[in-house]
Amino acid sequence: MAERKQIDYWLSDMDGVLVHEGRPVPGADEFIKRLSDSGKPFRVLTNNSIYTQRDLSVRLAAAGLHVPPSSIWTSALATAEFLDDQRPGGSAYVIGEAGLTTALHDAGYVLTDLDPDYVVLGETRTYSFTQITRAIRLIEGGSRFIATNPDPVGPSTEGSLPACGAVAALITKATGVEPYFVGKPNPRMMRGALNKIEGHSETTAMIGDRMDTDIVCGMEAGLYTILVLTGVMRRHQIDRFPFRPSLVVDSVADLIDLV
C-alpha cells in the first residue's frame, strides 16, 4: 500500500460507500459530519445521471446524510462540462432524465432531434425503443455519440437493471459507432471534481467501492485511492486486478480519524 500523505481534499463515490440500497452505510453520517466540520473541500461523486444535485442532496438527507447540492458531482454535470468545452452552445438529442437535461440546458445546449451535434445517452428507468431507434438514425446521419457512463447494470431492490453501458452497446451494435464515455472510469470526471474544489492530486483522496471504476479512475488522476468493502468488491478480489488501491478499509467509519 502507498504511503499516505496529508489529505487536504476528499472525493467519495456515493453508492456502496455512503449509502447501500438506499440505506446509509454505518459511520457514513459521522464521516460526512467530520468532513463538513473540518472545512476540508470535498465532493460526492456518482455515475448516476438521473438526478440533479438538489435531488441527490434530498435523497441523501432522507438517509441521514447532510450533503449540500454544491458538494455533489454527477456524470451528467461532467458530460455537460465536456460538451461545453468541446462545442459551446451546441445541440443534442438526449435520452435521459432531469439530471442530464438540466445540466445540458444550464450549459447553454439546445435539446433537439433535428440534426443535433451530439446524441447523448444517460440513465433512465424508461428506455424507449422509439428513442433508441431515433438515436441510431441520428448517429447514422452523422451525430457524434456521447454516453454519461459505461455501467452495464444498476442496482434495485428487485435485482439488476439495464443501465447506460448496456444500452450504449445496443446502439453501437446497430451503428458500428462507439460512444465517448465521460463518467468513471474516465479520469476526466475525477479531474473535473478536483477542479471544483481547487484540489491538488498529491493531497486528495478518492474513496470508492469498485476497483474497475473508482479506484482505477482515481489512480489515473494521480490521487490517493481508498477502497471500502461495503459495496460490490470483496477483499479476495483485489488481487485479480493489475493495480492496487493505496489503502483498503472495511468502511468509511474507518476513515473518520483521517479527516
3D architecture notes:
This protein is α/β, with parallel strands linked by helices and 259 residues long. It has 2 domains: 9-47 and 184-258, Rossmann fold; 76-181, HAD superfamily/HAD-like (Rossmann fold, 3-Layer(aba) Sandwich), CATH 3.40.50. The protein is built from 8 helices and 15 strands. A 6-stranded parallel β-sheet has the order 5-4-1-13-14-15, with helices on both faces. Strand 10 and strand 11 (161-162) form a beta hairpin. Helix 3 (75-86) packs across helix 7 (187-196) and helix 5 packs across helix 6 (164-175). The longest helix has 12 residues, at 75-86. The model has no long low-confidence stretch (mean pLDDT 94). This is Acid sugar phosphatase. GO terms for molecular function: metal ion binding; phosphatase activity. Keywords: Carbohydrate metabolism, Hydrolase, Magnesium, Metal-binding. Its cofactor is Mg(2+).
